[in-house]
Amino acid sequence: MKKLLIIAMACYGLSARAQMRESRDFLYLYSDSIIYANNIKFRPDFSGTLRVRVDSRNVPIGQVKFLNSRDGFFANTRKIGGIRAEEFAERIIEGRINVFQERSLSYAPFIYNPNYAYETHYVPAPAASINSNMYYNKGYADLKRLNCSNLKRDLADDPQSMDMLRAYRRSVNTTTSLYIAGAASMLAGVAILASDGKNAYSDSNFIIGFSLSALGAGLITGGYLKTFSSKQKLEAAVDSYNR
Question: The whole model's pTM is what?
């Protein structure tokens, strides 16, 4: 009976978190405590340090793991990769895998509001394709960088997603080969064009050098274009996992 009660309480907690995420403003702290609020804003304290204003109290940004407000759902990225300033990423995809993208926090110190003397807002930005400023997590877990190495561990229970990740890796390898071949061809072409053109083969040297440089430029362009199809495969892996 005690075990059933514990399971029921756990299920209720999960349900409450889901409802909280959908309908209420709140802070989810690194201590795993939750602060509900009627209004959440960013504002500086007397030292100029930004804090989260939660109704009538201030909360240091460093304590905030997730934030849900009228502007969206955000996650603190401060624990990702070395020493970082306090930054937030906005959730742009919600599912079994949540995807976050960094947003610029613009502070306007002299704009007065009758409710809050100073306000800070996230500047809206359209959702972009996969890039280095994107992160992901499951549920309320810590953020991770959105890359193939991390996803391979977290998507391992979905065969179709893993197939897409393998296709992504092959595409990346092809892109790298194109860049290397293109750079080598361009360097060879430039070296020939820069050589002494006064010999009997100067005309042929020019043609060869120019051709190699053009080929190199074409290979590099092909590698650049290939990166877009690679990103689409990474996106497809996430989409497949969230179905």
Answer: 0.69
